[in-house]
Amino acid sequence: ERSDGTDGQVSGATVVAQALKTQNVEYMFGIVGIPVTEIAVAAQQLGIRYVGMRNEQAACYAASAVGYLTGRPGVCLVVSGPGLVHALGGMANANMNCWPLIVIGGSSERSQETMGAFQEFPQAVRSSIYGRPGACYVDIPADFVNLQVNVNSVKYTECCMPPPVSMAETSAVYKAASVLRNAKQPLLIIGKGAAYAHAEEGIRKLVERCQLPFLPTPMGKGVIPDNHPNCVAAARSRALQFADVIVLFGARLNWILHFGLPPRYQPDVKFIQVDICAEELGNNVRPAVTLLGDINAVTKQELASQKSLPMNYYTVFYHVQEQLPKDCIVVSEGANTMDIGRTVLQNYLPRHRLDAGTFGTMGVGLGFAIAAALVAKDRNPGQRVICVEGDSAFGFSGMEVETICRYNLPIVLLVVNNNGIYQGFDTATWKDILKFGDATAVAPPMCLLPNSHYEQVITAFGGKGYFVQTPKELQESLRQSLADTTKPSLINIMIEPQAMRKAQDFHWLTRSNM
Ligand code: ADP
Ligand code: MG
Question: Which residues form the Thiamine pyrophosphate enzyme central domain (predicted)?
Answer without folding.
Answer: 175-300
